[in-house]
Amino acid sequence: MFSYFIPLLIISALYDDSAAKTSWDCEPKSISAYSTNENLLKVDVRMERVGRAGFFFTGTVFWNIDMDESVMVQLELYRSTTGAESDYKLTPMSIPRQTFIEYINTYYRDMVIKNLGECSDLPRYEDQYVPPWPKKNYTLTRCTINGVGMPEVLLAGFYKIKVNISHPEVNQEVKAIVKVTPKMF
């Protein structure tokens, strides 16, 4: 009986939940948003500092459009070693232009909710998106990126994330800059 117990103890002592954890930390640097029609879609987010080292995103997302095949999403991810505007280069980790419904069933479920689900009231879907998408004012409170669903390894540097949500009546753009540093174990 104890012959099985000792190897189990050794394995559990060596296992530190490091599988699929990121080897990087992320610090938000800036965020901005622009909408062509704030009566239909408006992202209003800002940086919030808590304590000496805690930086978070806080704000609201006003959603007042019908979710259908005309709503498109695209995400471009740029990287820079210096943070200078002229130094940013497009990375292959960008999300190609796709319908919002396709986005909800993949990236939204696998990355967005796993990173922002605990700090927001954004809709959650276990399997596939089930219409309708609620028209309401969503709240984000002290959100940060925990890395779940993201690459395990990222090069240190500055990353610019440009998200574009388009609809025949409105275009919403959100830009965020984060600094990625190696995690100190």
From TrEMBL:
According to the UniProt entry, where is the signal peptide? 1-20
Alphabetically sorted, this entry's keywords are: Signal
Out of the domains of life, which is the source?
Eukaryota
Protein name (Swiss-Prot/TrEMBL): MD-2-related lipid-recognition domain-containing protein
- Species of origin reads Drosophila madeirensis (Fruit fly)
